[in-house]
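User: Please fill in residues for this 77-position structure.
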C-alpha cells in the first residue's frame, strides 16, 4: 500500500485541505458537512472517521468551480 491509499483522520484531513489546496476548514466544519452528506466519502474505523486522499481530491474537484476571468467589459450597467 502506498502513501496515497492510506487512511487519514479528520485532523489530518483539515491539514491536508489547508496545505495542499489552501482551503482553510476546521474539524467542526467537516463534521457539519458530513452530517449533511456534503463531506468527502469517509469510512469508520471503530469510533474514528477516516478518509482516503483519493476521495478527498475527488471531492475538492467536484466542489471547485471553473476558473473565471472577469474584465470590465463583462459587467453591464
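Assistant: Residues filled in for all 77 positions:
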Amino acid at each position: 500500500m502506498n502513501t496515497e491509499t492510506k487512511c487519514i483522520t479528520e485532523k489530518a484531513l483539515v491539514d491536508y485541505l489547508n496545505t495542499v489546496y489552501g482551503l482553510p476548514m476546521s474539524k467542526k466544519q467537516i463534521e457539519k458537512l458530513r452530517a449533511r452528506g456534503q463531506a468527502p466519502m469517509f469510512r469508520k474505523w471503530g469510533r474514528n472517521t477516516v478518509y482516503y486522499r483519493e476521495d478527498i481530491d475527488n471531492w475538492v474537484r467536484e466542489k471547485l468551480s471553473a476558473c473565471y476571468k472577469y474584465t470590465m467589459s463583462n459587467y453591464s450597467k
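For context: Residues 5 and 15 are 17 Å apart (CA to CA).
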